[in-house]
Design a protein that fits this description.
Chain lengths: 384, 314
């Protein structure tokens, strides 16, 4: 089973869904909008296509609309506008129990008065599966999550991890077409959370089922998703595979929210073809390739450079890359495998990540002035 | 679970890895030891005694002492002309008298019947109110405001309410085919008077119900009724039991409302006890009647808790 966990993040899977008509297979959100009574716009014109067998993570700060989107798919909120289409059929107007989706709720939401087996059987019972069949299927599901021996325990007699596995068995036993997970790892301790990421992802691959997972944890999203949907302020900011989200943020929000990106605001000082040079008043200067961007010399521009792509130049050497800055080391944060150098270039805060084993030879100290540089390929022009 | 169940391996979580990760983070032994230490510290010492003291004194002085006195009086001898109507000579004759008074048992059964009707009616009428307040009113401020409004009848004095039941409402009741004064009008008055003792505990237990569990039940295919019986009702059970005990105890021994609304046409165990004490001034017989009533109440409460297994629920 170990060698099945190979498919990593792929760049080519980053096809953005066109906000067009629904396809016959998979889940489509079309112009999905939710305005709460009182006028709060929770979700604003969200368009997204998700394929069967795909693991999609909705990521964003709290209040960005990701949970409301998930709840609309599950039928727990009614959209103000737009449509939700699964395999060519609209789900809008159907009660939660009439939809081929099930939800794993944030705090597991187990039925406290029913034992583990009865919890898992509940959905089958509601769908009219006869007693013998549902017992068998429930026991199979418990086998899958390794809880056969605890079948007659009450939920409160279980650990957090076990409760979560009951919640998982309880929804999977109903054979949904799409599994919706609302912060499923949020209640778990860190080590278990890390392990559960791998296990949940692995289970999803084995099942070949569509998973739509909501989280505010960037690392969780990167480690689990086929595609990440970054949301902010009720809108989708960027839809892409984890590698693209991590290395090629398209907006300032994505660059900042994903963390460890240097966002540089400045003005275009040169332009030759698609190649712009952006500079700011703190003498941070970088080239960036911006295909089809209309900006001319003098226009404002914002770019992002990953902290991990930033190199610290040897003393006196020519800058290795096409972007560079003169910085003072403000704080050295040692993290084992890597060292984060918190820097300042004039007023601009910057961040560089250097490998932990290189740090002793490099020997930068707080207060030192260093020169950093980066390659043109690692620079990304941002939308505001 | 996948559509093609071929030779591919059955989906499976690596449970050993998960359990190991969880154990590393929360060693069960250490957690238990910590819990034991906390409990131990709380269980011992004079602090506990100090906390228990005011309540203990209160109960001792106002509940236990009078109860013991009533039990004593019930075994003393009635004597006309003696100071306070009895001498401290031990006897079981009072109980003999009461046990052989058929009116007493007749009224006891009548009160039990009234009381059961009141419990059932308060439950049926009170549950929707509590359900609405706890689960349908979303905003906490509205919830509290509506709850206080629901309590409003309780603020008017007993006399005003009873008189309202006796005179103005009797016309309305008459038109509905309920003659006043009658057992039916007394029961209606009792239900109105005490229903809050059902609504309050129900409201507080229903407010504790895990709302996402309700959503989960809906999500898994439960319609309203299945969700209600599977998730809401079991969690409301402690409130139902406590409310039922309140209504049972309060209506079974009730005599004030019976006197005012029933106007001597309706009797209860309470009116008999009262007549021994205030009309006949036969304290020992009255005390014996009261002790038997208390025993009946204890038996009733015992039955209610047994039926519902309250201790397990709490």
């Amino acid at each position: 089973m170990e060698n099945e966990r190979t498919a990593g993040p792929t760049v080519e899977g980053a096809a953005n869904a066109a906000p067009s008509a629904a396809k016959d297979s998979g889940l489509d959100l079309i112009g999905l909008t939710k305005v709460f009574p009182g006028g709060t716009v929770a979700v604003d014109d969200v368009n997204l296509h998700i394929d069967h067998g795909e693991y999609v993570v909705l990521l964003g700060p709290s209040g960005c609309g990701k949970t409301t989107t998930l709840r609309m798919i599950g039928g727990h909120e009614v959209p103000t506008e737009g449509d939700i289409v699964l395999d060519g059929h609209s789900l809008v107007g159907l009660a939660p129990h009439k939809r081929p989706t099930t939800t794993v709720f944030q705090h597991f939401a187990l039925f406290p008065h029913r034992n583990v087996l009865e919890n898992v059987e509940f959905g089958l019972k509601m769908h009219g599966v006869d007693k013998e069949q549902r017992r068998k299927q429930a026991l199979d599901a418990l086998e899958m999550v390794g809880l056969t021996e605890l079948a007659d325990r009450k939920p409160r007699a279980l650990s957090g991890g076990q409760q979560q596995r009951v919640a998982l068995a309880r929804v999977l036993v109903t054979k949904p077409k799409a599994l919706l997970l609302d912060e499923p790892l949020g209640d778990l301790d860190r080590l278990l959370q890390l392990r559960m990421r791998v296990e949940l992802r692995n289970l999803q691959r084995q099942l070949g089922l569509m998973f739509v997972h909501v989280t505010h944890n960037q690392e969780e999203a990167l480690s689990m998703a086929d595609r990440i949907v970054v949301m902010n302020d009720a809108r989708i900011q960027q839809v892409a595979d984890p590698l693209t989200i991590a290395t090629r943020p398209e907006t300032e929000l994505v660059a900042r929210f994903m963390g460890d990106n240097n966002v540089i605001r400045g003005r275009v000082t040169e332009r030759s073809g698609d190649r712009l040079v952006v500079e700011n008043e703190d003498r941070v200067r970088t080239a960036v390739v911006a295909e089809g961007d209309p900006r001319a010399v003098g226009d404002e521009a914002m770019v992002s450079v990953r902290a991990a792509a930033v190199q610290v130049d040897e003393n006196g050497a020519q800058p290795a890359g096409s972007g560079s800055a003169e910085c003072e080391i403000v704080f050295v944060e040692f993290l084992g495998d890597l060292v984060k150098l918190h820097l300042t270039a004039g007023g601009e805060r910057m961040l560089a990540k250097v490998p932990g084993d290189r740090y002793p030879e490099f020997m930068g100290r707080e207060g030192d002035t260093i020169r950093i540089s980066w390659k043109e390929d690692d620079v990304q022009l941002l939308r505001a | 679970m996948s559509s093609s169940s071929g030779p591919e391996p059955t989906p499976q979580l690596d449970v050993a890895e998960l359990e190991q990760a969880e154990k590393l983070e929360r060693p069960p032994a250490a957690e238990r030891a910590l819990g034991d230490a906390e409990r131990g510290a709380r269980g011992r010492g004079w602090v506990t005694v100090a906390w228990a003291l005011p309540g203990g004194l209160w109960l001792g002085f106002f509940l236990l002492a009078p109860l013991v006195f009533i039990v004593l009086v019930s075994f003393w001898t009635y004597q006309l002309g003696a100071k306070s109507g009895f001498t401290t000579k031990w006897t079981t004759a009072n109980y003999g008298t009461i046990i052989h008074t058929s009116t007493y048992w007749h009224n006891m059964l009548g009160s039990l019947y009234t009381s059961l009707i009141a419990v059932a009616a308060c439950l049926v009428l009170g549950f929707p109110v509590a359900y609405f307040l706890a689960l349908k009113v979303q905003n906490l401020r509205n919830q509290i405001a509506l709850f206080i409004i629901a309590l409003a009848p309780f603020w008017t004095s007993f006399l005003v309410r009873s008189v309202a039941w006796t005179y103005p409402l009797s016309d309305v009741l008459g038109k509905l085919g309920i003659s006043t004064p009658s057992s039916a009008s007394v029961r209606l008055a009792l239900i109105q008077l005490y229903i809050l003792f059902m609504i309050t505990p129900l409201f507080f237990t229903l407010a504790q119900v895990d709302r996402t569990a309700i959503e989960a039940a809906r999500d898994l295919g439960g319609n309203w009724w299945r969700t209600f019986t599977a998730v809401i009702l079991p969690q409301a059970l402690p409130g139902i039991v406590i409310g039922s005990i309140f209504i049972f105890v309060l209506t079974m021994g009730e005599y004030g409302t019976v006197l005012v609304v029933g106007q001597n046409f309706v009797q209860s165990v309470g009116t008999i006890v009262n007549s021994y004490i205030t009309n006949a001034v036969e304290y020992p017989q009255g005390a014996a009647a009261a002790v038997l009533l208390v025993l009946a109440l204890i038996a009733g409460v015992f039955v209610i808790t047994r039926l519902s297994n309250l201790r397990e629920e709490l």
